[in-house]
């Protein structure tokens, strides 16, 4: 067992660096995906097919749903029968680090459904907590066990050059690592992600039930360059949160001492709400978080995913959809920027970035059998 990934020379690459592939999970949990996940499965399929144009997609799907997934997606996808509780591959999958010698290493964090007994969204998450190690073993990646440190992939972004981006609201929440101080949490991140500096944004997106994951509010689009979710509407509760993040970033430099360029990426002009029509579709387990009519969902265009060939951007049938696509097209001139309908993913509690987890480029010769 290595002392730490950092000591062994590993680092967390930026999402815009080359990928070996992408991990996803087929959406079947009735408490997350209403009406047997019909809308979600269609939305996931569009995401999977777009990513598969430029890299390998690994899809975790149980035997009962494998034929369904194959009928919607066809060949070219690697289907793996690995047990899950839900479909948030970003948070349950491994954080794959790379070494300059071409090797890769999976970090397997403890997963407790965003808060465990304190404020977790469901109470049976045993299978999800094992996803990272089981998947890594299936594709032949060594695993560094980070348990009992609780962290989700959506809570961290990396520029690949020593800087990690997080939110205080998430990483300092009482349901994760309450026995550790902020300084201790930061040291774990530096040691386990091979980084030199952590940038602590105060807040994420309003009403984000993950305790405000960073991947919904800000993301690196290049070295020392970020997008930040923004609204000019001072009456919107998001305004004060984004303004606090903006003010913080204005004063910061990255791990290499560079001032940050921050682009304001607007949130949808109109809040995306749960409707009465959505509610009959959900079937909840005891202790599971339940939706209510009129509930504001944490919609954000920052929850995009960068594949080898494309940038997949959530679309909400909103006036700001096109604005988001235009800005991201300017920031990613070498990639195709694709807008995909995402409300059916948002109804589950996250978005495109939340259902994807990049697997960093490494030398893989593992042959896998589909389910």
Compact summary:
This protein has 371 residues and is α/β, with parallel strands linked by helices. 25% of the residues lie in helices and 23% in strands.
Structure description:
The protein is globular and about 50 Å long. A four-stranded mixed β-sheet has the order 1-5-6-7, sandwiched between helices. The chain is built from ten helices and 17 strands. The protein is an alpha/beta fold and 371 residues long. The mean pLDDT is 96. It has helices at 38-52, 63-73, 89-92, 116-119, 126-139, 168-171, 182-193, 237-250, 321-331, 343-346; strands at residues 10-11, 19-25, 56-60, 78-80, 95-99, 104-110, 143-150, 157-158, 163-167, 197-201, 218-222, 225-230, 261-266, 305-306, 310-315, 336-341, 357-360.
Keywords:
371 residues, alpha/beta, four-stranded mixed beta sheet, 10 helices, 17 strands, 23% strand, globular
Largest sheet, spatial ordering of strands: 1-5-6-7
Q: How many extended strands?
A: 17
Helix content: 25-40%
Can you summarize the main beta sheet?
4 strands, mixed
- The mean pLDDT is 96
């Amino acid at each position: 067992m290595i002392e730490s990934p950092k000591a062994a020379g590993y680092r967390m690459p930026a999402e815009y660096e080359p990928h070996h592939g992408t991990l996803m999970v087929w959406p079947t949990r009735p408490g997350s995906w209403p009406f047997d996940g019909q809308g979600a499965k269609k939305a996931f399929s569009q995401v999977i097919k777009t990513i598969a144009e430029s890299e390998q997609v690994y899809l975790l799907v149980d035997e009962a749903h494998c034929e369904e997934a194959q009928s919607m997606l066809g060949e070219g996808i690697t289907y793996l029968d690995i047990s899950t509780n839900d479909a948030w591959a970003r948070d349950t999958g491994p954080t794959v680090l790379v070494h300059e010698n071409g090797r890769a290493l999976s970090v397997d964090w403890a997963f407790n459904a965003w808060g465990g007994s304190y404020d977790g969204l469901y109470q049976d998450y045993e299978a999800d907590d094992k996803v990272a190690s089981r998947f890594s073993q299936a594709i032949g990646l060594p695993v560094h066990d980070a348990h009992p440190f609780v962290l989700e992939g959506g809570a961290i972004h990396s520029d690949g050059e020593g800087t990690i981006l997080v939110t205080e609201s998430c990483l300092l929440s009482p349901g994760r690592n309450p026995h550790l101080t902020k300084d201790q949490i930061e040291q774990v991140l530096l040691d386990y992600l091979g980084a030199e500096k952590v940038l602590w944004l105060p807040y994420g997106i309003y009403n984000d039930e993950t305790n405000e994951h960073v991947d919904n509010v800000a993301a690196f689009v290049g070295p020392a360059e970020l997008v930040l979710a923004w609204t000019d509407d001072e009456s919107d509760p998001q305004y004060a949160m984004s303004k606090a993040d903006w003010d913080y970033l204005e004063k910061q430099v990255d791990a290499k001492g560079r001032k940050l360029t921050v682009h304001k990426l607007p949130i949808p002009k109109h809040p995306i709400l749960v409707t009465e029509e959505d509610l009959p579709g959900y079937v909840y387990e005891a202790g599971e978080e339940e939706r209510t009519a009129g509930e504001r969902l944490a919609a954000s265009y920052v929850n995009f995913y960068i594949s080898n060939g494309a940038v997949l951007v959530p679309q909400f049938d909103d006036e700001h959809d096109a604005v988001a696509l235009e800005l991201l097209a300017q920031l990613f001139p070498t990639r195709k920027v694709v807008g995909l309908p995402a409300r059916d993913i948002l109804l589950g509690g996250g978005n495109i970035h939340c259902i994807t987890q990049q697997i960093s480029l490494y030398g893989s010769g593992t042959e896998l059998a589909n389910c």
